Fold each of these.
Amino acid sequence: MSDRIRIVILGGGFGGVYTAMHLERLLGRDSRVEIALVNRENYFVFQPLLAEVVSGNIGLLDTVSPISRLIPRCRLYVRQVESVDLEARTVTLAPGSRPQPLVLSYDHLVLATGTVTDFRGMTGLQQHAMPFKTLADAVRLRNHLITVLHEADIEADDARRQQLLSFVVAGGGFSGVEVAAEMNDFLRAAAARLHTDRSREIRVVLVHSGQRILERELSPSLGLYAQKILQRRGVEIRLGQRLLTATGDAAVLANGERIAARTVVSTVPAFANPLLAALPLPQEGGRILVDGHMEVVGHANLWAVGDAARIPNGADGEFAPPTAQHATREAAVLAANIAARIRGGRLQKFAFPGLGKMGSLGHRSAVAELFGRIRLSGFPAWVMWRFVYWWKLPGFDRKLRVAFSWLLDLLVPPETVQLRLESHGGVQELHFEPGEYVFREGDRGDSLYVLISGSAEVVTTGENGAERVLTVLQAGQFFGEIAMLQQRNRTASVRCCTAMNVVALPQGQFQTLARHLPQFREGFESTMAERLQRDAE
Amino acid sequence: MSDRIRIVILGGGFGGVYTAMHLERLLGRDSRVEIALVNRENYFVFQPLLAEVVSGNIGLLDTVSPISRLIPRCRLYVRQVESVDLEARTVTLAPGSRPQPLVLSYDHLVLATGTVTDFRGMTGLQQHAMPFKTLADAVRLRNHLITVLHEADIEADDARRQQLLSFVVAGGGFSGVEVAAEMNDFLRAAAARLHTDRSREIRVVLVHSGQRILERELSPSLGLYAQKILQRRGVEIRLGQRLLTATGDAAVLANGERIAARTVVSTVPAFANPLLAALPLPQEGGRILVDGHMEVVGHANLWAVGDAARIPNGADGEFAPPTAQHATREAAVLAANIAARIRGGRLQKFAFPGLGKMGSLGHRSAVAELFGRIRLSGFPAWVMWRFVYWWKLPGFDRKLRVAFSWLLDLLVPPETVQLRLESHGGVQELHFEPGEYVFREGDRGDSLYVLISGSAEVVTTGENGAERVLTVLQAGQFFGEIAMLQQRNRTASVRCCTAMNVVALPQGQFQTLARHLPQFREGFESTMAERLQRDAE
């Protein structure tokens, strides 16, 4: 252990990285001080441009910068944070290359962990809705869109193709509107280039609980303008509605409307990082209470910044909203305060009136409201939107890359390369609504299922075409073992009776466990024997 | 079913895609003909530049083009091929969006499935060596290199850090040499930019079975030149050696040398696609025997092209080597032959003398041998190498992108963003050599293990520091359940006695199965109770 003063920053978003950047400038050459930043990823994501990754207007990695390049004099820990001990002044990081956790002690701790998307407790969404928050979310969504387009291209059945080409986005804030707009642009352009032009079959539905999109963010006239633009481009908008649940086959709205779709994106729930929620700190609405200096109330040298903090804004007497422009200004003040605490000096209070709000509507239009007075829309707003964010991109090479990507975007048709790295090896949870099928007689057997909650009936169709219910399955029972153990097609259909959750263990995993763990295999074999006996009767 | 003539091409590499491109030109406007191409990915990889992805000299997706853009009039099936029925003239594709396989009938079938990397039967390599063949391989390798660099940066133990910073590449052909060169460049540059400069600790070892690298590909003087260049840049070359096995901790060579390393890349084994191996077709060395027209011997309208085929070359009386320059020329002849068969006309024989061979050595040098006479090395060869491959890149936008990436590479330091999408959810196989530890007492418990072959001893260290062997584990037994069920650190160490293979079921998976499948949990609980009892005695 050195006797240097160690500042540990948790989180590599706008709040954390910009605090570190300012600290480097203020204290980076001070040999008494050591700055460390912990983040799960080794890159910083420039969030405002993330939606453009989906449409491919910019390259996959154009929105991100390696953190170590932005803060070369800080020590970077690419690890997950497991816990914080406020008494002992230590942070425990999850194991990395060795199977032991790593414990960092600190003198100053900056909580900059932002918010997380969390569908917990939201039936069906946890299993089937795609979040849109991180770079991985954006890349996964893009890959998924490309997959359904390719599948639609070779799908002869009209209903199945329509399901593949229907897309539901929940949330009418900036994030939801931008994703819906970019998806809509990309899907229509890409579908027009399929073997058969399918652009007219694309259906993008934006679901919003309010009476107008962007109602919290913008004035009524701009919100209505945005609504009109999206509708003109073919986005269907459902106002006063809420996404109730999702399955692998459909999105279900609170009014009972069922939209057959394979793609459901939700930008809605933003919660406090569970790490912070577990700490004995004053919190409100999942945000840590800090004073105007961004020091946690009642805890010396413990600071919070960005979306994770509830920061009184000296400029308007409100609390600072969770935006990038506020986080970067908070970071500058916070870094100055930490430097003042270490070297002596007065602490500053955070005060920033905000410059305005902007949102892209895709396809060369946007909406913007500046200094609470100036309103811009359409192409001028879009030009400003692009220029402002481009200017704010950290680093010269990032600016070059993005400028070049935008240039290419004007010259060449949309890119549809699908970079798939995920190995769908693991156990998955799935949700079904009544009447939906887990699988049908004759399907290829690709998973074993365990029923966690709800109930399902096992049915076969006899030679006369009449349906026969073989049995009803309850929570705790497994099914689908026959096709797995005998490596043949499904011998019966399984249909959901009451809303249910199941765990699916994929074929490859099942076979590996069955081969090497006799006790595992035997349990399934005996049940299978009983069931085959029963069905034969 | 239509009564059009359907040509089905299996494989989206140089052979398959270029055949489709030529067929489009010859038959694309012929309404009697339908062309379909099946490939697992939706993109074509420009293989010669793949090694540059590792170093980040070009962007992740610069080497790939969406297949549908290259052959817009063909129907693209982004699916895996399950089987071919030569009698019925059908191809069965794995299920996609529906859980049933898709059956395509064909009139002409083109086998262009190339070769696959396959470590089967090679102890330890299957579990721990990283292949280098596909884009996913390149991206995974790059991500892995970035991970070990970050881990090395925060690793205080010298031996562990040296292990993290040691890299072994097996195979001294073009592929192995290019990967070793690019890795070496990238690692040294990136390590120099870590918090502490670690570039001097980087160790890259190239293992080759011959007496000189590139001995099959180039003349002795160029091979020796390449060797000298690599050695000057710090690559250690082990000649007359073979990679015998690999574990999570080391690479073991045939002479018994053990190199402690976390990264082992092998470019060696290229096998026929298992799909082809299963077909009752004349084959030699895993390649399908075809006549000079590229028609499979004894099978009308069944064709093979590229690395999958053994094609007599009219130019030299030999068989065409597995290179991109040959595959693209084969494709042109093959497409003309299929068109001639359909429309009537004479079939051509393949004859191409080859233009030469080139390999990059990274860092602005290369080696090349043209028309069997001209030899180039160093910077001129590198300029030619870049220009030739850039010129051969399909599509204008790809040329633009790559040119821009190369330009950026001159201006800015290497990029280290790590795009991680993999979810390490599934069961993994691991290999251990005698004396290695699966885990040690006090480690965090992150997996349950099943011993498949070999044996291991369970040991603890008493208060006096003396080691005590608790038991010896044999194949079929599982271990590590105590830490998993009781969620605590390992209570003992497990050390390999005889070379062994184990299956690891990660924590998350184990807990999900244990929670929902009572029979699964109970089996482990009873064994755990017995073992705790025994250890307490």
Amino acid sequence: MIDTILDHRTIRKYKNTPVEKEIINDLIKAGTRASTTGNMQLYSIIITTDEENKKRLAPSHFNQSMITEAPLLMTFCADFNRFNKWCELRKAKPGYDNFLSFTTAAIDAIIVAQNVALAAEDKGLGICYLGTTTYMAKNIIEILNLPKGVVPVTTLTIGYPGEDPSLVDRLPLEAVSHYESYKDYTPEVIDNLYREKESLDEYKEFIKENNKETLAQVFTDVRYKKEDNVSFSKLFLSVLEDQGFMNQ
Amino acid sequence: MIDTILDHRTIRKYKNTPVEKEIINDLIKAGTRASTTGNMQLYSIIITTDEENKKRLAPSHFNQSMITEAPLLMTFCADFNRFNKWCELRKAKPGYDNFLSFTTAAIDAIIVAQNVALAAEDKGLGICYLGTTTYMAKNIIEILNLPKGVVPVTTLTIGYPGEDPSLVDRLPLEAVSHYESYKDYTPEVIDNLYREKESLDEYKEFIKENNKETLAQVFTDVRYKKEDNVSFSKLFLSVLEDQGFMNQ
């Protein structure tokens, strides 16, 4: 278990082998054993294996080649629709059309996704998370036919690995952990925490390829730009509104 | 691994035994191996073991007894503060003061939390997720001294189990999984999916204790009420504003 966690690598190239139906079932089962708020199970998983449907989803994930190459996609959704329908059929008046309820359901869905990811890796499959899911939620809602009360929050591509990448660097543990209360970072501390990362050849190459002066500039000017973040923020907030989660 | 996932039970009673420092370290390490957007590691973990600090946090978690009884609390935060500080020290202009960036960091933090939860369970520890973290984020920010750019999104209580509860029911797998596109639920389907749950003696008892007619009413009228959700929604949105994530 802990080995599966420690050995995680993101896999972006997959073999052509389909993922067996029973394994897909095992993955869903692993998802459903996750902690869930009040045992309400405020999530749904949309399973995509059909080639045409993968092609329809690809533009929502910026046409990264793994979307159509992976034999299996799972889109994890915050879902209050099922719970609301149950309430209405049981003389109960649901009050879950607000931002807190979306947050609760989104957390439920992400915990499920990580259970599925680890169960997949434990079975020799490889996975990649697609952050594009929240950026392009509006399009994904249309393609997957998601009703009010349902919002996609993340996607996994899943398949047998067609590559064997090495473990990716991480900041030292003290960068992300604070004992008893948050100790804010001085410039000296930041320098120390990022020194190893900044010394790696792959990042030096990355800076050169992108014609930038620092690694941080590759993030701010190329990969995660303010103008994109702002426009996707507006879009995602309008999706929450449309899906009925902004009535507070 | 898959056994740890399938055997998960929420543990609310703990032995008095502290969690060893090396184990806490192993848990943090397991957290950092999780998938993270662009390898930015947009999260921080606040570790609480001090009795006085647990008492200070307890009201934010509605004074549930496990908060002070568990030897270890971990509060998982969406954190753009560290990344922003690094950008600013590297002549890069961060554009992450918006809702999409909060969502991205919150997803990062929740994936880390589930890695920590499973690593803990794999080591014989028990865990409980505290959904109260988003409800009471404002108070937690004060207590843990969280700067702008940091928002708590979930908390785990962790310790050696002082109880051995049985596995909790879940809806059938077909309730949460949709092949190729979302199939909305008809009343007949809802009846079928919830039949087993509604037949369980513990829930019948629960309805009686709460003087309600249906299980759904226990949720809507007692446990997760509209008025609370609405007021906590407003509070959480104001926290996002205060912490600098609503400038889109």
